[in-house]
Structure formats: structure tokens, C-alpha cells
Design goal:
Blueprint (H helix, E strand, L loop, with lengths): L7 H27 L23 H12 L12 H20 L14 H16 L6 E5 L5 H10 L2 E6 L2 H13 L6 E5 L12 E7 L8 H11 E14 L8 H13 L6 E2 L3 H7 L3 E7 L16 H16 L7 H21 L2 E10 L13
Helix pairs in contact: 2-3, 4-5, 7-9, 8-11, 10-11
Pathway: Steroid biosynthesis; sterol biosynthesis
Function: Catalyzes the methyl transfer from S-adenosyl-methionine to the methylene group of 24-methylene lophenol to form 24-ethylidene lophenol.
Family: Belongs to the class I-like SAM-binding methyltransferase superfamily. Erg6/SMT family.
């Protein structure tokens, strides 16, 4: 029996269709299985979860989060609820951050001839010199996330670093990264609220927080806890998110930019730059140094956020496909859109100079162990 003769053009069309199908499958495979973090490929697109939130509750949790932080200034009146919603926020965003950002959830100044990854590492390692971290010391990371800074600081200093994060999912991710980096002997992660830390008084030789204390409803509460667990003479450095002296509360564009940052980053309300020193002194710290690390000669920290529309729609299509295929839970698309909108406000804040994520304050707990704070906090 002879097969019917296929005309040459029909064969050519079939070959084109097969080639197109193979390319489509290849592109889909690259999107779903190979496309990982821009900085450290520790998270693939197919592994995107919403932390410890069950798949059927993601959309509800996102709606509850958005309802709570829609008007950030009003959340101060319900400050006792803030930690729970910050926990929800990091359940929603941790995997997306790792996938697209890496293991360090913070900004850094752009440096000529330096990749974002290297600039991030140098920004973290600055902490080592500021607080004098060295072998034999125990250092506290306040708000450690998945532990990118912790591992850089432990490796650079030789110190033991203990991190605390409110999010249980991040604890698991951080511990997994610590093992992979063979730093689990130097790095420890604890789940807890940095407003009520589960550590004894005078437990740590030094401490740092990198863009984390902005989640506290009252900065004096977290600074007071850090003061308590720090040994007399110990140094603490923080990189704070603040509005600068250029911010004008009467300017609607300024207000929308700052509130957009607050809404999209689980912030109960950004503090003004000039307030930070007063809070540190109020709880008993001596202020050693204070400056904005984002100012020249540092390059723009927001350059990483200026992703093109093409990149955004590529990722948007990807998470939409994964949602339709039920690889990712419903709600991922909305979270991705929220983060993109937040990136727009952050970029605007940086370009106008009304916002900085790296106002650095270096403090010391007085050597006099009997030193008292000026007032209760």
C-alpha cells in the first residue's frame, strides 16, 4: 500500500508548523523552568508560591492586605494589627522577590562598572566595618528576610549572625540558603516579632537592620528592643526608609508618591529623615554617625526598578499563564501588578529626591550599663 503523495508546499507548511510548535514549547519551558532570579537563580518561575498561605486563600489574603494598607496613615490607629499584615505581605511577595530580585530584599547605590549583585554585596559588607563585626562576636540581623545580607556579613566578618523575621516561610527559605552556602554553622534564623524579641538582655555584641524597621508602627519600639538586647558598648547600624527634606505634604504628587510606596510595601507610615536621630537618643542610644547613603557620589539606587514595559508584560504574561494552568494560585497576577505599581512610585520618589531607602544611622549603647533612656518607649 502506497501513502498518498504530499505536495512540496504541504510538506513545507507542516515543517514550519512543527518548527513553530517546538519554538513555542522551548520558550514556554524557558519561561516556566529556567527563568529564575535576575541576581541569584534560587527560585524558578514554576516554584512561585504565596508563602504559607494555602492556594485557595491567596486572593482573600491579598484583598485583606490591600484593604488594610489602602490608607497607610490610618493604620497607625490599628498598629497592633500591623505585624500580622506585614507577615501576610511577605507571604505574598517573598517568592516573587526571590525570583526577580535575588536573596537580598533591599536597594543599594549604583556603582560604576559594578553589577547590581556586586553593589548589593558591597552595601551589605559596609555593615561589617561600621559595627566592627569580627570572629568571635555574635551579631543580630533585625528583619533578616531570606538572609542575603546575613550570609554576606557572616562570610565577610567571621561573626556568628542571628537573624529574626516575622515570617515563618522566610525562616525556611533562609535556612535552606544557609545550608546551600555552607554557612548554617555561622547563621541562625529565628521566627519572631522584632517589637518583642525572644532574646535575653545584653545578648549581642552588635546589631544591624537593612530597610526593615520601616515596618514598625513606632520606631522607638523596635529601637528600644534593639537597645535592650545589645551589650553595653555595642554598635547598631540601620538603613532607614524615610522622606527627605524635599518632601512637601502640600504637594499632591508628593503625597501620592509616598502613599504609593507605603501601600505597596506594608508600611504603616514613612518617617521624616530628621526624626530618626531623636528616636535613637530617646531610647538611650548615643548617635555616632548619620548620613544618607543615596546622595552623590552614589549612583541612583532606583535604576534597578526602571524595567521596560516589555519586561513587565513578559512577566505579566508569564504569571497569567501559570495562573490559568494552575501552576500558580489565583492572586499572583494581582500581587505582581501591585509590586509593579509600587516600583513606579519608588522610582518617582528617587527621581524627585523626596524619598531615600538608605538613610544610615550608626548608634552605640553606652558602656555605662546603668544608663537609662530619657523616657519610656
Amino acid at each position: 500500500m502506497h501513502l498518498p503523495f504530499l505536495p512540496f508546499k504541504a510538506m513545507e507548511t507542516a515543517a514550519v508548523l512543527w518548527t513553530a510548535a517546538l519554538v513555542a514549547v522551548g520558550v514556554l519551558y524557558w519561561f516556566l523552568c529556567l527563568m529564575g532570579s535576575a541576581e541569584v537563580k534560587g527560585k524558578r518561575a514554576v516554584e512561585l508560591k504565596m508563602g504559607s498561605i494555602t492556594r485557595d486563600m491567596v486572593q482573600d489574603n491579598y484583598a485583606q492586605y490591600w484593604s488594610f494598607f489602602r490608607r497607610p496613615k490610618e493604620t497607625v490607629d490599628s498598629s497592633e494589627k500591623v505585624p500580622a499584615f506585614v507577615d501576610t505581605f511577605y507571604n505574598l511577595v517573598t517568592d516573587i522577590y526571590e525570583w526577580g530580585w535575588g536573596q537580598s530584599f533591599h536597594f543599594s547605590p549604583s556603582l560604576p562598572g559594578c553589577s547590581h549583585r556586586d553593589a548589593t554585596r558591597l552595601h551589605e559588607e559596609r555593615v561589617v566595618d561600621l559595627i566592627g563585626a569580627r570572629p568571635g562576636l555574635c551579631i543580630l540581623d533585625v528583619g533578616c528576610g531570606v538572609g542575603g545580607p546575613m550570609r554576606a556579613i557572616a562570610a565577610r566578618s567571621g561573626s556568628r549572625v542571628v537573624g529574626i523575621t516575622i515570617n515563618e516561610y522566610q525562616v525556611g527559605r533562609a535556612r535552606a540558603h544557609n545550608r546551600k552556602a555552607q554557612l548554617d554553622g555561622k547563621c541562625e534564623v529565628v521566627c519572631g516579632n522584632f517589637l518583642q524579641m525572644p532574646f535575653e538582655d545584653s545578648s549581642f555584641d552588635g546589631a544591624y537592620s537593612i530597610e526593615a524597621t520601616c515596618h514598625a508602627p513606632r520606631l522607638e519600639d523596635v529601637y528600644g528592643e534593639i537597645y535592650r538586647v545589645l551589650k553595653p558598648g555595642g554598635l547598631y547600624v540601620s538603613y532607614e526608609w524615610v522622606t527627605t527634606g524635599l518632601y512637601r505634604a502640600e504637594d499632591p504628587d508628593h503625597v501620592e508618591t509616598i502613599q504609593g510606596i507605603e501601600r505597596g510595601d506594608a508600611l504603616p507610615g514613612l518617617r521624616a529623615q530628621e526624626q530618626i536621630e531623636g528616636v535613637a537618643r530617646k531610647v538611650g542610644f548615643e548617635v555616632v554617625e548619620e548620613r544618607d547613603l543615596a546622595l552623590p557620589p552614589s549612583g541612583p539606587w532606583w535604576s534597578r526598578l526602571k524595567m521596560g514595559r516589555l519586561a513587565y508584560w513578559r512577566n505579566h504574561i508569564l504569571v497569567s499563564i501559570m495562573t490559568v494552568l494552575r501552576i500558580a494560585p489565583k492572586g499572583v497576577v494581582e500581587v505582581h501588578e501591585m509590586l509593579y505599581e509600587t516600583a513606579r512610585h519608588l522610582t518617582r520618589g528617587g527621581e524627585t529626591g523626596i524619598f531615600t531607602p538608605m538613610h544610615m544611622i550608626l548608634c552605640r549603647k553606652p558602656i555605662d550599663a546603668n544608663h537609662k533612656a530619657n523616657s519610656s518607649y
